[in-house]
Specification:
Blueprint (H helix, E strand, L loop, with lengths): L13 E7 L6 H9 L4 E6 L16 E4 L6 H14 L4 E4 L11 H10 L4 E5 L9 H18 L11 E4 L2 H4 L12 H11 L4 E5 L15 H17 L5 H7 L8 H11 L1
Parallel strand pairs: 1-2, 1-4, 2-3, 5-7
Antiparallel strand pairs: 4-6, 5-6
Helix pairs in contact: 4-6, 4-8
C-alpha cells in the first residue's frame, strides 16, 4: 500500500466528497486514510440507520446528513455544492465502502494538475483478475455505450473514484434526483464530453474482499434507467455516428486533448 502523507491540507484546492449509506463498518477507516493524504473531507450521510454519522462525530471533517435516503446522485450533488461553497477548485469523489484506496488520491491529483480541465477517473479494469466476472463484463458493456454517447474512448465509465473540476458544474446540468441514483456518474461523462471536457484514466488498486457489503445496485431497475438515459442521448442526436467512430479508436490518454479539439470542430 502506498505511503500515507500526513501533511494537513497539502492539497488545499481539493476537497474529497464521500457519500455514505449504512457504512458504519468501513467509513471511519476510509475517512481517516483520506485525511492522511492532506485533503479536506466532506461526508454526506445519506439517511443511514446504522450509526454511520455517529462513527464520524469527533473527526475534523464536514458532515452533512440527508433527512432520508435520497440516493448516491443526490448525495454527490450536495457534497459537490458544499465543496464549491468552501472554496475548492476540484472535488475528489470516492466510495465509503473501502473498495477504493485513499492512498491513490495523490496520484489522481498529480494527473489532474497536469490536465486541470479534465475529469480524472481511477480505472480498475486493468485488474481484471480482482474484479468479479459479472461486474467486469457489465462495466465493459457500459463502457461501449457511454463512450459512444460521450464521443470518445473510456477505460472505466463506472468507477466512482474521480476528480471533477468544479467549473464543470457551471457548464453542465445533470439530473441528481432519487431516480438518477446510478445514472449520474454515467450521464456526467456524456454531458461533459459534449462540452469538450474529456476524462483521463489513472490505474488504481481495488478491493472486493469478502468483508464488503453487497452492492446497492439493483440490476433490473438501475440498468433500465441507465439504458433509458443512453437511448435518449443517442436517439436525440440521430444515433451520433461520429461519436461511435471516435469511441472505437485505440485509447491514448496523452491524445485526449487533441481528441477533444477534434470533437469540438465536428459539433
Amino acid at each position: 500500500m502506498p505511503e500515507q502523507n500526513c501533511d494537513a491540507h497539502r492539497f488545499a484546492d481539493y476537497i474529497a466528497v464521500i457519500p455514505a449509506y449504512n457504512e458504519v463498518r468501513t467509513v471511519r477507516n476510509v475517512v481517516e486514510r483520506t485525511l492522511a493524504q492532506g485533503i479536506r473531507v466532506i461526508v454526506v450521510d445519506d439517511g443511514s440507520t446504522d450509526g454511520t454519522a455517529d462513527a464520524l462525530r469527533d473527526m475534523p471533517i464536514r458532515l452533512l446528513r440527508n433527512p432520508e435516503n435520497l440516493g448516491k446522485a443526490a448525495s454527490l450533488w450536495r457534497g459537490i455544492q458544499a465543496a464549491k461553497a468552501d472554496g475548492a477548485r476540484a472535488v475528489v469523489t470516492l466510495d465509503a465502502d473501502d473498495q477504493h484506496f485513499p492512498e491513490d488520491i495523490p496520484r489522481l491529483i498529480q494527473r489532474h494538475e497536469a490536465l486541470p480541465d479534465h475529469i480524472v477517473i481511477g480505472s480498475r479494469l486493468h485488474a481484471r483478475e480482482k474484479i468479479p466476472v459479472a461486474r467486469y463484463r457489465a462495466n465493459r458493456f457500459a463502457n461501449f455505450w457511454i463512450a459512444w454517447a460521450a464521443g470518445y474512448p473510456l477505460r472505466d465509465s463506472q468507477s466512482g473514484f474521480r476528480i471533477y473540476p468544479l467549473a464543470l458544474f457551471d457548464r453542465v446540468r445533470v439530473r441528481h434526483d432519487r431516480a438518477s441514483c446510478f445514472v449520474f456518474e454515467s450521464e456526467i461523462l456524456i454531458e461533459a464530453g459534449r462540452q469538450g471536457i474529456y476524462s483521463v484514466a489513472v490505474p488504481i488498486a481495488v478491493s472486493y474482499g469478502k468483508h464488503h457489503r453487497g452492492s446497492y445496485f439493483r440490476p433490473v431497475l438501475d440498468i433500465a434507467r441507465v439504458a433509458r438515459m443512453l437511448a435518449v442521448k443517442l436517439i436525440g442526436r440521430g444515433m451520433y455516428l461520429p461519436g461511435l467512430i471516435r469511441s472505437l479508436r485505440r485509447r491514448s490518454d496523452d491524445a485526449v486533448t487533441s481528441a477533444a479539439g477534434e470533437s469540438r470542430q465536428q459539433r
